[in-house]
């Protein structure tokens, strides 16, 4: 039988245990096209962000990494990522996403499409093709270049290309908007662009973010136009005079909740010098780290663990 003093000790230990086990929310990194989690650049990127923020970071791999990033349709990549985050117990109470290039549209797919997934608090996007890109990104490898050359002749919005070449899922040709809306399998759904198929759930989920950090690279030679990293894009029917995000229909008609987030002060439109994904450590610390360490939570199952400890 416990005396009063033992009861006080239990309460104090429970309180101290709760404080000691409170930590920043974990985060995942979704790498870009032609990359993979085991590559040194990605590994170092995740480690630096973890060390600086005090948050546990994970690189989430889809398939075999590099080849999958080029060849598996983005809707399937998103489905795989969804199942993975649902199985990661560390993410149960919420998590943050850091997206690199193509990884950003998969990250947004997690937010909008992943039924039953853990909530995403902050989304930090580096060089994301959010409004599309008017060109297939550089292939970078002989095998991939051969694949692209073989399939692109059938038309970027053909079933063959859409099912064989992942980035075709966000290629948006301003001079063929009808073909894009009809044939592109991923981005029109992600951006709620199809009039009779707009989904209020996607909009609600995206507009529920606590912060949306959009980082554009001033000298980006991969994304066309570079302003797509901010949701800016060409007007329909033209390949010049890029519209700022606030002048696009996606924003003014608020198809995905971007305007709602912006009006609430939750969108950060940031730009850094350098080419695509060429970000300095200083800019990482300034523009990414604060959004990885400001959220905290108490480690799950603490109460049960404490009770078990004091029942013995």
Automatic annotation (TrEMBL):
The taxonomic lineage of its organism, from the top, reads: Eukaryota, Viridiplantae, Streptophyta, Embryophyta, Tracheophyta
Keywords from UniProt, A to Z, are:
Disulfide bond, Glycoprotein, Hydrolase, Signal
Drop me one GO molecular function for this one. Answer: thiolester hydrolase activity
Signal peptide from the UniProt entry: 1-24
Question: Which Gene3D superfamilies does this chain map to?
Answer: alpha/beta hydrolase
- Would the keyword Hydrolase be found if you checked this record's keyword annotation? yes
Matching PANTHER family? ALPHA_BETA-HYDROLASES SUPERFAMILY PROTEIN, PALMITOYL-PROTEIN THIOESTERASE/DOLICHYLDIPHOSPHATASE 1
Q: What is this protein called?
A: Palmitoyl-protein thioesterase 1-like
Entry superkingdom: Eukaryota
């Amino acid at each position: 039988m416990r005396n009063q003093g033992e009861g006080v000790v239990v309460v104090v230990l429970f309180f101290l245990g709760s404080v000691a086990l409170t930590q920043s929310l974990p985060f995942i990194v979704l790498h870009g096209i032609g990359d993979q989690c085991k590559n040194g650049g990605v590994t170092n990127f995740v480690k630096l962000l973890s060390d600086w923020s005090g948050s546990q970071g994970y690189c989430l791999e889809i398939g075999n990494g590099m080849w999958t990033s080029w060849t598996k349709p983005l809707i399937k990549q998103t489905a795989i990522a969804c199942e993975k985050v649902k199985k990661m117990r560390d993410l149960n109470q919420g998590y943050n996403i850091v997206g690199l290039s193509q990884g950003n549209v998969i990250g947004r797919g997690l937010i909008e499409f992943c039924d039953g997934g853990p909530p995403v608090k902050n989304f930090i996007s580096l060089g994301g093709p959010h409004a599309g890109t008017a060109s297939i990104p550089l292939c970078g490898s002989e095998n991939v270049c051969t694949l692209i050359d073989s399939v692109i002749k059938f038309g970027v919005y053909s079933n063959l290309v859409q099912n064989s070449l992942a980035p075709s899922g966000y290629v948006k040709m301003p001079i063929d908007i009808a073909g894009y809306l009809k044939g592109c399998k991923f981005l029109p759904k992600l951006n709620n662009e199809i009039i009779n198929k707009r989904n209020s759930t996607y909009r609600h989920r995206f507009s529920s973010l606590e912060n949306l950090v959009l980082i554009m690279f001033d000298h980006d030679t991969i994304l066309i136009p570079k302003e797509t990293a901010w949701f800016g894009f060409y007007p329909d029917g033209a390949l010049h005079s890029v519209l700022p995000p606030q002048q696009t229909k996606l924003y003014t008609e608020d198809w995905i909740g971007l305007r709602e987030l912006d009006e609430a002060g939750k969108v950060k439109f940031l730009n850094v010098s350098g080419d695509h994904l060429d970000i300095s450590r200083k800019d990482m610390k300034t523009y990414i780290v604060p959004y990885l360490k400001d959220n905290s939570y108490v480690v799950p199952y603490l109460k049960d663990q404490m009770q078990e400890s004091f029942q013995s």
